[in-house]
Amino acid sequence: MTTPQEELLPATRRALSHRIAVAQADGRAPSLVAALVRGGRTVWHGSRTSVDGHGPDENVQYRIGSITKTFTAVLVLRLRDEGLLDLGDPLEKHLPGTGAGEATIAQLLAHTAGLAAETPGPWWERTPGSLRPELADVLGEQPFLHPAGRLHHYSNPGYTLLGALVEEMRGAPWEEVLRREVLEPLGLHRTSGQPQAPHAGGWAVHPWADVMMPEPAEDLGRMAPAGQLWSTTGDLARFAAFLAEGDARVLSAESVREMRTPAAPPGAAELASGDSYGLGMQVLRREGRTLAGHSGSLPGFLAALVIGVQDDVSAVVLANCTSGPRPLTLAADLVGIVAEAEPRFPEPWRPAREIDPSVLEMTGPWYWGTQACALHVTADGTVELGPLAGGGRGSRFRPNADGTWTGLDGYYTGELLRAVRRPDGSLSHLDLGSFVFTRQPYDQGAPVPGGVDPEGWRGIL
Length: 461
What we know:
Residues about 1-5 have low confidence and may be disordered. An eight-stranded antiparallel beta barrel has the order 12-13-14-15-16-17-18-19. The protein has a seven-stranded antiparallel sheet with strand order 2-1-11-10-9-8-7, with helices on both faces. Strands 3-6 form a two-stranded antiparallel ribbon. It is α+β, with helices and mostly antiparallel strands. It is built from 13 helices and 19 strands. It starts with 9 loop residues before the first helix and ends in a 23-residue tail after the last strand.
């Protein structure tokens, strides 16, 4: 449900409207529609069109192309979270006989399996899916172009394999599973495999003249999990809110965070731009902020969905032309307009409900060799360990039942932090993946690897 647009300041709403007006005019799009999400709700909707007196609203369907891949990735992560598969499993373990089964599920999700970008044969986006009825028709005789795991190489056939995996493990067609497990729980009633009125028509705009012609809208068949879906800004706004926060009915906050985490080795271009790819989601760096989401295109349509988790702003952009506007850039710009004009208020500081005295004892300064660090306990029960000044290694840690802590991010992701005590119960030092953190630099009373010079610290010899 769209909330009143007055939740954004008038100047912000005008800046958003101006930005999409420029994009529609410069991109020569027959129509362009956009939405902004903040606080988990749609707070702005805008559209521009070449038809006088009419503008598409948040219920008009457009084809969303490869944003479909994010939906498919959600289905695969659900299988993982239910314990039915591991992302490190080779595809062959669960879907034998494809000829590409040596690729792992994680590699397929992150486009690092080494598969070809497109199918053999005629342009699959503009021809009927009936031309490719089997997985062998999608993959061809030589499905691999690169060594698995070495390179991020975007692959549409890879997501066809993931869709087939979902069908195999659920015993039902991909779209049926998607509707039952994602669309219906999230209330995405205007998202479908086939267009449902009202929907936009797809157009090709001539590159050198202001004329256009209709594009075909083919049923992609086997390739559907890579790009079949039609949706609206209203539905995609709700999907963006889910991808930012998770929903226990579909996928946890931890799992959607995993989707937004880079999982592919960056190439030279990605290193220069700061962009990467997670599990079914692009990870972008724009104007100093990290955004996650996905772009999409099929003949006649362009689409983008981006999420700025730190700014609590997400944007959706849909257009009905084959080329012209740059929806991913536009969506990132819309996020930036709101984030800069109306920055997010931090949550009020609140004290923790309670704290274990043994955990409180761990707080304060520690030394890794001679580097001064500090350990903080947060109200949510995690701890943070990092340098007191300057750059360096730091991470957050979650508590484990045995009194240890597991790294959640940064250099120490997955590493174990232990508070080591003396026989009398007093706190001796911290052990972090074999590194010893002491209360004094190279504390002689702690078991520092390599020992401590018995003469201690000294001046000029």
